[in-house]
Design brief:
It is a single chain. The chain is mostly helical and 447 residues long. It is built from 15 helices and no strands. The longest helix has 34 residues. It is globular.
Length: 447
């Protein structure tokens, strides 16, 4: 069972010491690298004619990248193998045993495993349910540590189901037609699934690295909010339907730009919730509600944003969401004392927040550069001050300033935590608010 670090100390496994998550390269690491290389080689030989030079380069480059990441964090290796195996099983079931090049989407209603487990909609529904249960278990874990362990297991299950669902969705699109199939990162439904998965996966990495499960309830709250959106978007707007790509998205740049962007979004969200946990820890013994007012207002502001989804007027669904969300924030603040006692020390929370923002900033920077290159390829210019581009720059400048103030000016403590939490408001508006209220060239999907 994971235990909390000693107060005031950063865990020894944050570096390259004896408790580091990675070790020397072993036979299993080489076997995994050989397996991924063999799969990539088969794909190049079998489907190379359908790929252009850039796509072949991405496929070849993915082999050492996956090998390196799986060596850094070995649970990722198991996740890749299990998700890949499940996706291949789903592809085979869709084909009815006739070969990977054949398939019929109608089998999703007739084959038991596809209908209830491995079709993309079934798998993503399992992901949503598991993430919701994991959130509850993490919070119950403040009373019963066994429940926190179950929260970790359920989060891993949700990550497995979600990634399997995205892989199978990729195949389902091609079964619908050659012009319809695409990497499932093109519309609002798909990127919200990716957003939730990236946030949860990075949390699991830091959970093991910092040897604590006490932050699971905080981080999984934002993942649970994404799950609520997915349910609403599927049932109210039928957003789960696979649609052909618009011409601007028919580019290999999308395969790089969008994942890098959402690694940034996911880690920024993680940092914001760690910042919230920091403030709960810091104010754990205070009896003054005036000091807690900024925390409540920020939390309520994050809850109120979805009320505007779909229209410019308040809907009953999202008004209820706001009410429940504000109540949850209020309960956390009311129970801040016992919660604070089980959270990691302030230096640990501060270090985790910094590392998450640093990782997110690096990927968001790469995504912004890739986006500029994509724009030049699609529209003939690198930058047009489109609303989405402008707000992406605002988000980038926000976190650049945060890192600058920390590294150069020694920014620490409550100000840094409030800044990280407020940063989620900027990130949320750049992600969704721009699409709802401003017109431009960019859109992940209609609301």
């Amino acid at each position: 069972m994971l235990s909390r670090p000693s107060p005031g100390a950063v865990p020894t496994n944050c570096g390259n010491g004896p408790e580091s998550l990675r070790g020397r390269i072993g036979g299993s690491d080489l076997a995994f690298l050989l397996l991924t290389a063999s799969c990539a080689g088969y794909a190049l030989v079998r489907y190379g004619e359908a790929m252009d030079g850039y796509e072949k380069a991405i496929l070849i480059g993915a082999v050492p990248a996956l090998g390196w990441m799986a060596w850094l964090w070995r649970p990722l290796r198991t996740l890749i193998l299990v998700c890949g195996g499940s996706a291949l099983l789903a592809v085979w079931l869709y084909s009815g045993g006739a070969g990977l090049d054949q398939g019929n989407l109608l089998r999703a209603d007739n084959v038991l495993i596809l209908k209830y487990l491995l079709s993309s909609q079934s798998a993503i529904l399992w992901m949503s349910c598991l993430f919701g249960l994991a959130t509850a278990c993490y919070w119950i874990g403040f009373i019963s540590p066994t429940s926190a362990w179950l929260g970790t297991a359920l989060t891993w299950g949700g990550v497995y189901a979600g990634f399997t669902g995205l892989l199978v969705r990729w195949r389902e699109g091609h079964l619908m037609g050659r012009d319809i199939g695409h990497v499932p990162v093109s519309n609002l439904y798909e990127v919200f699934v990716l957003f939730a998965l990236v946030t949860a996966l990075f949390y699991l990495y830091y959970e093991r690295r910092y040897v604590t499960r006490a932050l699971g309830g905080f981080v999984m709250l934002v993942v649970a909010s994404m799950v609520i959106f997915l349910f609403w978007y599927s049932f109210a707007r039928n957003g789960q339907q696979i649609q052909p790509l618009v011409p601007a998205l028919k580019s290999w740049w999308m395969k790089l730009h969008v994942p890098a962007n959402f690694i940034g979004y996911g880690t920024f969200s993680l940092a914001a919730m760690v910042g919230f946990a920091y403030l709960v820890k810091f104010h754990g013994q205070t009896r003054s509600w005036k000091r807690l007012a900024p925390m409540f207002l920020l939390g309520a502001a994050l809850c109120i944003e979805p009320m505007m989804f779909g229209s410019r007027h308040v809907s009953v669904t999202w008004a209820l969401y706001f009410g429940v969300g504000a109540l949850v924030v209020g309960l956390i603040l009311a129970l801040r004392g016992p919660i604070a006692r089980q959270l990691p020390s302030l230096p640990v929370l501060e270090d985790l927040m910094y590392r998450a923002i640093a990782v997110g900033f690096a990927f968001f920077t790469v995504a912004t550069v890739l986006g500029a290159l994509w724009a030049a390829d699609a529209w003939g210019t690198y930058w047009q001050w489109d609303p989405k581009e402008t707000w992406a720059l605002i988000v980038w400048l926000n976190y650049a300033a945060w890192l600058h103030m920390r590294l150069i000016k020694g920014l620490r403590g409550v100000v840094a935590a409030y800044w990280a939490l407020a940063g989620l408001l900027l990130t949320s508006f750049a992600f969704l608010g721009v699409n709802m209220f401003l017109t431009g060239l960019h859109s992940y999907g209609t609301l």
